[in-house]
Amino acid sequence: MVKIAPSILSADFAHLAQSVQVVEKAGAEYLHIDVMDGHFVPNITIGPLVVQALRPHSKMFFDVHLMIEQPDRYAPDFIKAGADLVCVHAEACTHLHRCVCQVKELGARVGVSLNPHTPLSLIEYVLPMLDLVLLMTVNPGFGGQKFIPEVLPKIEALSRMIEEKGLATEIEVDGGINTETAALVARAGADVLVAGSAIFGAADPARAVAAIRKAAESSLTIGHQHRLKDDLAVV
Ligand SMILES: O=C(CO)[C@@H](O)[C@H](O)COP(=O)(O)O
Ligand SMILES: [Fe+2]
Fold first, then answer.
1. Can you tell me which residues form the catalytic site (predicted)?
2. Atom 10 (ligand 1) nearest CA
3. Cα dist from 146 to 71, 140, 142, 184, 226, whole Å
4. pTM higher than 0.90, yes or no?
5. 9, 126, 134, 213 — which has fewest CB within 10 A?
């Protein structure tokens, strides 16, 4: 079973609470909240006040993706505001282990994200501490970008690493996910699929949630085979 995480980056910011309620009713499991600081990525989005304002409007699992420098300075504010999970970028943390411990000590779930070019070796030693690893399938900073297929082998490798270590860490993928790419990432081993433009840019976001889930899950019923060469040929 996969989880669907609509990214509010592509939602109507003038009607955020209503947009969230639409995807919650549609059965999406996580609400993906993209936080950008104009330094780590070339875009600025939202801060803890928006998370705090949304919290009373939804029971969804708030998955906060921090694309910011010095995430240890702001993680506590996002947790206080209602984040269920805080995901920091490995590239933004000089002291990644300290950052991961900080989030856990504050009582939230913790994730670490990797940009498309960043190798898995960077998180190998903290992996047993993590609830989730977020593999970027676009260069972070904007919604609506094209999926980078070269990340597929990394999803497979992480899935094997998690299995070999006997861990329950979830693999989340983020960027360019639609009904076509959902099938590819699910087959590679992704558990949580973030989608922004494919959901909130659709005429009917609730149907889009169902369509992405169906595409991912039907690709798994064929069997979780390692057919990466065939998949790469499709993209
Ligand atoms: O973190 C990011 C972008 O940096 C994402 O969460 C985007 O919001 C995904 O948008 P789509 O690629 O699905 O439109
Ligand atoms: Fe994101």
1. 34, 174
2. 143
3. 26, 11, 10, 14, 23
4. yes
5. 126
